[in-house]
Amino acid sequence: MTELTVVVLAAGGGTRMKSKTPKVLHEVAGRSMVGHVLAAVRALGPTRVVTVVGHQRELVEPHVSGLLPDGLLAVQAEQLGTAHAVRMAVEAVGEVTGTVLVAYGDTPLLRAESLRALLDDHAAAGNAVTILSGVVSDPFGYGRIVRGGDGGVEAIVEEKDATDEQRSITEINSGILAFDATFLADALGRIGNDNAKGEFYLTDAIALARAGGRHVGARPVEDPFEIEGANDRAQLAALGKELNRRIVTGWMRDGVTVVDPATTWIDADAELAADVTLLPGVQLLGATKVDEDAVVGPDSTLKDCEVGAGAHVVRTHAELAVIGAGAEVGPFSYLRPGTVLGAGGKIGGFVETKNARIGDGAKVPHLSYVGDAEIGEGTNIGAGTIFANYDGVAKHRTRVGKHAKTGSNNTFVAPVTIGDGASTGGGTVVRGDVPPGALAVSAGPLRLIEGWAQRRRAGTKQAAAAEAASGAVGARTPGEHEASHNDSPEVGESAAGASES
Ligand code: UD1
Ligand code: CA
């Protein structure tokens, strides 16, 4: 096995991004640009990966180390050119043998397969240098591949140093180059900076190889997007859109129904099973996983979430949440980190959850906030319930047992425990524990002041309506009203005021 050293150049400034974030850390499809490149080179199983950092290295270094903990870093304090950058990498390694592959940190669509094909060509031909080239309609700005009469590569000429005739060449240098390591180490010591930019050009190695009688090859990449770098935000968006198109197409080929690919965004690290359906306006971000037969959308954003088989997630915003098999979420639900919804459970409209374990078949159907909570299987939480988890200083947990039925418009003042099979009445404020099977009621009896509207709102439509209705209903004593119109059903043993659905 010959050694393979991969050098990733990530020292440049990226001024056209006009950003406080270094260029290679800008993201497409949920990963930094350099993250995409490192993923592609790692798939080659190289002996080592050396990332050259310089500009804003206090930000780039920790990012790269996080992605590739056993990778090496080389510092290029001043950006004196691509040959100088590669020299810093080779010096950081000490001695290199075998093959050195040079790539740039800003080509997010680069695929391992294309690099492997380049390395295979390189090894088979015994070249000193093999170039991943590209044939493009607008070669402006790129180094041009100058081929000799036999088709072999004679040199790469940079835009600023090219003759008019050379500028018309449409085969360009992607910057991705495979080198015989021994040749490279020698060439790096001989490359000068006598050119239009006053930089040490790595591309000068080609002419040196030819002068030394070595062969140089170039292999045009099949898909020019793979070698394209993003230098500004417009190019970043264009590459992001193209990468997304590829990711979405890939999932459709794997059996995912995507109703509107143009409004569907799937990050590189998301995973989908066959027979998932994505409706228009869905973003599956980060390491989101969606299991078979689940339906997501329309208009939902899920970041680092798990969606179980057959679940339905409609108009939902969720992050670091787990949605069980066959569960229902939305519309207009907000699932914050630590939400775990059991199989067949429900989080309904205008419900916000955080750090909440909601058991199998348990339901929070309407208009509620569920924070720092445990809800047992089969329990139903009434409409408009607030889990009051914050006392102004610290957060506390609420535990609701299995098969409990809590009333509408409740407040659970944490820490509090509601037992298995317990009930609460409508409007209950639960400030203490409720034992299993108990009915908790905290609202007082309904108080009626008869004829109030007619007296206090005399002359209004309200008073007239009241007057007309009380005539129709006929005379009743206040006592009768209290018994028959009582809207606090919790005083009886029957209804708990829950809103089930
Ligand atoms: C380079 C190539 C050119 C090729 C083009 C493809 C050279 C001399 N030219 O030109 O043939 O067509 O890329 O995009 O190699 N970098 C460093 N340290 C430096 C200089 C650059 O790390 O001192 C990094 C940059 O961050 C960037 C990459 O190397 O990622 C390319 O550098 P850049 O200056 O953009 O080279 P180009 O002029 O585009
Ligand atoms: Ca460039």
Task: Describe, in plain words, how this protein is organized in 3D.
- The protein has 501 residues and is an alpha/beta fold.
- Helices cover 23% and strands 27% of the residues.
- Strands 13, 14, 16, 17, 19, 20, 22, 23, 25, 26, 28, 30, 32 and 34 form a 14-stranded parallel sheet that branches. The chain has a seven-stranded mixed sheet with strand order 5-4-1-6-10-7-11, sandwiched between helices.
- The longest helix has 21 residues, at 233-253.
- It is elongated and about 110 Å long.
- Residues 474-498 have low confidence and may be disordered.
- Uridine-diphosphate-N-acetylglucosamine (UD1) binds next to helix 3 and strand 10.
- Uridine-diphosphate-N-acetylglucosamine binds next to helix 3 and strand 10.
Question: Which short descriptors sum up this protein?
Answer:
single chain; 501 residues; alpha/beta; 14-stranded parallel β-sheet; 37 strands; 23% helix; binds uridine-diphosphate-N-acetylglucosamine; binds calcium ion; Bifunctional_GlmU; transferase
Largest sheet descriptor: 14 strands, parallel
- Relative helix content: 10-25%
Integer average pLDDT: 94
Shape: elongated
Oligomer: single chain
Structural class: alpha/beta
State the total count of DSSP E strands. 37
Ranges where pLDDT stays below 50 over 5 or more residues in a row are: 474-498
Q: Radius of gyration, Cα only, in angstroms?
A: 34 Å
Identify every distinct bound molecule in the structure, by name, code or SMILES: uridine-diphosphate-N-acetylglucosamine, calcium ion
Separate helix tally? 11
Beta-strand percent range: 25-35%
The end-to-end distance, rounded to whole angstroms, is: 65 Å
Subcellular location: Cytoplasm
EC number: 2.7.7.23, 2.3.1.157
Keywords: Acyltransferase, Cell shape, Cell wall biogenesis/degradation, Cytoplasm, Magnesium, Metal-binding, Multifunctional enzyme, Nucleotidyltransferase, Peptidoglycan synthesis, Repeat, Transferase
Cofactor: Mg(2+)
